[in-house]
Specification:
Chain A is mainly β. Chain A has two helices and eleven strands; from the N terminus they run αββββββαβββββ. Chain A has an eight-stranded antiparallel beta barrel with strand order 1-4-5-7-8-9-10-11. Chain B has one domain. Chain B starts with a helix and ends in a 6-residue tail after the last helix. The chains are: A mainly beta, B mainly alpha.
């Protein structure tokens, strides 16, 4: 999803991809995972996964601030390993996938921390509400992927948001307000 | 305290009951009839705010946010139309059903096959609201207490329908309205007061809007359950008519029979839902 794109963008900002020049990478949906964790009644953290993420990232190591990132996550691809809960979460009271099928993230600022990490801040749009979200991004690797010979970059991103910021306040505090994000992605060109 | 901490439905039940009791007290102290009429819609709005933990923005984005405003607009509209005294009350019911279905389904109208659930919900919703309101009028020998008992019963019928339709949140809304309406009904049993159309139509339109979210937007509502809900309000007056005259003239007996008759499809609805759908309980 967008966090992934953000990760890419942040990597670009870091200038960590020595082989990269200004170019667009396309997020590889088959190697991109957007997970979220939310507290369930204090007993555990429930894990959800969005399985369908697309997007592009453009970056130039020489001018990381000019990086670009656009990510689109299909909210209907949500799965939590329990079908009745998936139905509920996709319904009008939660992600409302019938009316809001897309969750988008557009990177705005890309900040380098060191050669392997940085931060991406961008606008996350969910349920028609747009709020800034910041992700800590780790650059994992850049190079040619041996399986398909594609020029590839890989990132991991972590972050959190308050779902209430997007109007999703149902069952707080029984279901936690804070949502932790785990994003793993590869992008190719 | 543990009960409140561990059960997400307790806050909405408590808030709905307290709101209902506050309106009962206000009506008894002041004698204002509008307090009796507005009590049920306000209970619904309070139940919504506690369940969804917000007053949704206006204009609302998304079906769940529209539920609140539909209940409010239907309440105010019914009061205005009642004040004008130009239209029969069944027209209010149809207009409220039309408002709920069209507003909730507005973004889906262009979708393939969208009109069938939309028209179905307008028809069934109008029927249910008309039946609920009619049960509280002298035309059926009813009063406000019976109309509110019917509203509480319909809320009870809607709860499992929403749960199986993918809206566990709506269950809290239904239970809150059911408890609040039952308390309001109980407080009015002996008064035999007839309420304005806003009483049942305001809260009923909100409840209908919640059902519209699973019927029109996600299209996961069970049509047989919806049909039974639409017909249930007519069971109350019908059951009272079957009573021997000696019992029929007793307000408490007629009230109990009317409410229980309206609630009577519950086992059938639950059985249908379990037979026709995967259990949402795992």
């Amino acid at each position: 999803m967008r966090p992934l794109s953000i990760a890419f963008a942040s990597v670009a900002a870091l200038g960590a991809v020595s082989t990269a020049s200004a170019a667009d990478y396309k997020i590889d949906p088959s190697h991109t995972h957007v997970l979220f964790l939310v507290n369930h009644l204090g007993f555990s953290n429930m894990i959800g996964l969005f399985g369908e993420t697309t997007g592009t990232i453009g970056f130039d190591p020489a001018t990381p601030a000019a990086s670009k990132l656009k990510v689109d996550v299909k909210t209907g691809s949500l799965q939590t390993q329990f079908a009745p809960r998936d139905v509920d979460l996709k319904g009008a009271d939660w992600f409302n996938v019938a009316e809001f099928p897309d969750m988008t993230f557009v990177g705005k600022t890309f900040t380098k921390k060191d050669d392997k990490s940085g931060q991406v801040t961008g606008d996350l749009t969910l349920l028609g509400v747009t709020k800034p979200v910041t992700l800590d991004v780790a650059f994992n690797k850049a190079g040619v992927r041996p399986t398909d010979k594609a020029d590839t970059v890989g990132f991991s991103a972590r972050g959190s948001l308050n779902r209430s910021d997007f109007g999703l306040k149902t069952f707080i505090p029984y279901i936690g307000d804070k949502v932790d994000l785990i994003i793993e992605t590869e992008a190719t060109r | 305290m543990d009960l409140i901490v561990n059960n997400p439905f307790v806050p909405v039940l408590a808030a709905s009951l307290v709101t209902a009791l506050a309106f009962v007290a206000a009506q008894r102290i002041t004698g204002w009839s509008w307090a009796a009429t507005l009590a049920a819609p306000v209970v619904f709005l309070v139940a919504y705010v506690v369940t969804y933990q917000k007053i949704p923005p206006f204009p609302p984005a998304g079906a769940a946010n529209k539920i609140f405003w539909i209940a409010l607009v239907a309440t105010l509209g019914a009061m205005a139309l009642d004040a004008l005294d130009r239209l029969p009350r069944w027209v209010f019911a149809v207009l409220a059903a039309l408002l709920a279905a069209l507003w909730i389904g507005w973004g889906k109208i262009g979708d393939e096959g969208a009109w069938l659930p939309l028209l179905t919900m307008i028809a069934l919703g109008g029927l249910a609201l008309w039946g609920l309101d009619r049960a509280g009028t002298p035309a059926t020998g009813g009063d406000g207490a019976r109309a509110l008992a019917g509203l509480a019963a319909i809320s009870g019928l809607a709860a499992p329908t929403l749960l199986f339709g993918g809206s566990s949140t709506g269950v809290g809304l239904c239970l809150g309205l059911a408890l609040g309406a039952a308390a309001l009904s109980l407080a009015q049993v002996r008064s035999r007061r007839v309420l304005g159309p806003a009483a049942v139509l305001g809260a009923g339109a909100g409840l209908l809007a919640a059902l519209d979210t699973i019927a029109v937007v996600t299209r996961r509502a069970d049509p047989f359950a919806l049909a039974l809900i639409a017909l249930a309000p007519f069971l109350g007056p019908w059951a009272v008519r079957l009573l021997p005259p000696a019992f029929r003239s007793r307000p408490v007996v007629a009230w109990m029979v009317s409410g229980l008759a309206t609630l009577s499809p519950l086992p059938v609805i639950v059985a249908l839902l379990f037979l026709r759908h995967d259990s949402p309980l795992g």
